[in-house]
What we know:
mainly alpha
Amino acid sequence: MGSYKVAQYLGVVLMIHAIISAAQYRAEVESADDLRDHIPGDIIFEGIAAFLIASFGYISSHGVFENIHKKKINEEKSFDQFHYRPNFMVFNHRGQCLNHQD
């Protein structure tokens, strides 16, 4: 297993831990009838760090990205090559009836 997959799973585990910690904190605040309504900073920091670690692991595990601007490839193609879409070619249409020869 690659190190990027480890980072991805570590980020997910940290996210789950942050969610459980926030739920426990809310339960303690409600049981103590306390008026505090905010989540502590360490739980927020843990959630943000977990998101960044998981995102980094997921993005990095998919290899090298290609450039969006394919200028060199597009300059070599002709206009007809851009509009060639074989999925839109239909050969079973009513034009066959008009060209029918008995």
